[in-house]
Amino acid sequence: MTAKDDKNLQQVLKKIAGMPEPARSVMQRMHDLIVAAAPELKPRIWYGMPGYALSASSPVLVFIRNDELITLGISEKAVLEPAGGEDGMLIPAAWYIDGLDDVTEKRLAEIVRAAVG
């Protein structure tokens, strides 16, 4: 990890630590899931919230936000494919979360790995 990567990681962890509960715990768990599912991703602050990219200078692929609900989002720079079936050409790119369980955590990890390609 480069010094810049470490600085960016510390900024992300500080951002998450400053959030009120229960969002703080959910966001920390989502951060942990993202870096475990795609260890090649490097965290950094992106539009004021945690974002994850292949390097400190490459586009963010995955991000998490804490608004009224917590969001896992995939940026337009990620590997995106139309859903197909009844959803036709719609491309899933954001999921709202109000808590985590084993099933949700497994699906989040799959989404992150797919976004990285």
From TrEMBL:
Residue span, YdhG-like domain: 24-116
Cross-referenced SUPFAM superfamilies: YdhG-like
InterPro entries: YdhG-like
Domain of life: Bacteria
Protein name (Swiss-Prot/TrEMBL): YdhG-like domain-containing protein
Species for this entry: Sediminivirga luteola
Taxonomic path: Bacteria, Bacillati, Actinomycetota, Actinomycetes, Micrococcales
